Amino acid sequence: MNFSISLVRGGVLALALTTFGAAAHAAGSVGWLNPANGASFPVGTMTMPDGQANASGVVGGGLDLVLALDGSGSMGAFVNLPDGSSVRRDILQQQAANALVNSLPAGSNVGVVEFQSSGFVRQTLTPIPDAGVTSAINAIVASGGTDIRDGIVTADGELDANGRAGTSKQILLISDGGSTQSVAVAAAAAALADGYTVNTVGFPGAANSTLAAVATAGGGTFVNFSNNPQDIVDIFGGNSGGVLVGVDGVEITDPDGNTFAGTVDALGNFKVPAYNLKLGANTWTAVATFSDQTTATSSLTLFGTTNGGGGNPTAPIPLPASGLLLGLALAGFGVARRRRG
């Protein structure tokens, strides 16, 4: 896939698991989030480690992200795609937002704000995955005006009300329009003063100078998709590097010595394929390359033990939702059998 993206970064260069106040020019970092380094599991346990890279140099701590999505009438316009087909801007926005949410690691909370002639909360900050977040994103369709300021103010208020202590608190605003720049910039500066980073994405028709100024005032990053809106879904979903956090890519080496490019979303989160643990130490190494071409390295070691074996304290690996439901069903079946017995 070939694409060209214009980036304007503010003073913090961050939309991921970062801490407000991190130095703007800190060296980049990469780290593993789950499972905990040094944990042990029975041999054969399937693991899918995930991690995060960030040019700001800070990873970990959890994420509270509010998506401020444009519901103005102009979002009903069509975007022509390279294959000759077309898609409405609001549908493309839905696809991109869902791809981003689906790529986030465990421990992330997401809220959804819609802004038209005014802003309002469609979904309060909620642990993901959650059907309510998806429904809120998909409910945003074109109608009304464009009040970027009120979108930021509403997102700021949601973080005030429901943000968790100790997390990175972020606002991601997508728009194809513009509004009075001075008040939008003032709202972004106020959010930054509250400890929240404001990042912006421009669709075709957007007032890119306003969105860039908002991101700069909010200490975040502006990404211009005006000329290539079709790429936003792939980029937000993890197919083109952490464009919002200064990450070009992450190279992974698995315990068998195989080296491959990790799947990295726009926020710098990466995942590796499923791997069945072998007896003893199983080590992955991640090498992140940042937009300034510097690199950072981090390793994760998990121990495979025989049943009943000792080793390090065991940290549970989250089951997929379907696996969790199946486990609960089987557990209920066992209880029922014991009662009948």
Textual characterization of the structure:
It is a single chain. This protein has helices spanning 89-103, 131-138, 148-162, 181-193, 208-217, 232-237, 321-340, and strands spanning 6-9, 29-34, 40-42, 46-47, 50-54, 63-70, 78-80, 86-88, 108-115, 119-127, 168-175, 196-202, 219-224, 247-253, 259-261, 263-264, 269-271, 275-276, 280-290, 295-305. With 341 residues, the protein is α/β, with parallel strands linked by helices. It has one domain: Rossmann fold. Strands 1-13-12-11-6-9-10 form a seven-stranded mixed sheet, sandwiched between helices. The longest helix is centred in the last third of the chain and has 20 residues, at 321-340. The protein is elongated, with a radius of gyration of 21 Å. The N and C termini lie far apart (61 Å).
